[in-house]
Amino acid sequence: MNKITRRQALGTTAGALTVLGIAGATAHAAATDSRAAATPAGTVDEVYQGRRIQITPAAGGGHHGGHHGGAALPTVRIDGRELHVMRNADGTWISVVNHYETYPDPTSLARAAVRELQGAQLAPMQMGGTA
After folding, report:
1. What 3 state SS string does 46-94 have?
2. Distance (Å, whole) CA 7 – CA 22
3. Which DSSP helix (H) or strand (E) runs through 129?
4. What does the pLDDT average to over 15-39?
5. How far is Cα of residue 42 from the mean position of the Cα atoms in its chain?
6. Which of 5-14, 18-27, 33-42, 83-92 has the highest mean predicted lDDT (pLDDT)?
7. DSSP state letter for 45
8. Which of 2, 18, 30, 67 is the most core-located residue (most Cβ within 10 A)?
9. CA–CA gap between residue 82 and residue 95 (Å, rounded)
């Protein structure tokens, strides 16, 4: 009668766990791909340091219309409150939270704003003159 050795048992177990791990990773990747396909390109909805960041791409004229050379800007929200963003001529981004540091994209900009806010809420942005 053949007895299985401890080394053979461990090898069989390790092989089975590897197969299960690959299958799990494949299933997770497929689920992630299906979620990504369901969201429009350029859309971000994430929680960063406990704050919800939502970025929606500009549609048509965008909410900023003719600002910044007529280019429509994405809407960036932190915990549902809009973060006013601007795009520089060199393609970098700045916000009202920090006009002095530039970021390569709106997501990096929003994450930096979360860090800078240190838990504070965004105050509503008032545009235009005083009445």
Report:
1. EEECCEEEEEECCCCCCCCCCCCCCCCCCEEEECCEEECEEECCCCCEE
2. 22
3. none
4. 49
5. 9
6. 83-92
7. E
8. 67
9. 11
Q: Is residue 10 predicted with pLDDT exceeding 70?
A: no
Tokens at 131, concatenated: 């009445």
3-state SS, residue 44? strand
Q: Which two tokens stand for residue 101?
A: 């540091």
d(CA 61, CA 72): 5
Asked if residues 93 and 104 have their Cβ atoms less than 8 Å apart, the reply is yes
Judged by average pLDDT, the poorest of 12-26, 71-85, 98-112 is: 12-26
User: Would you say 88 and 102 are in contact if contact means Cβ atoms under 8 Å apart?
Assistant: yes
129 CB burial (10 A radius; 0-12, 13-18, 19+): exposed
Of the candidates 109, 89, 82, the residue with the CA atom closest to the CA atom of residue 98 = 109
Average pLDDT over residues 36-57: 83
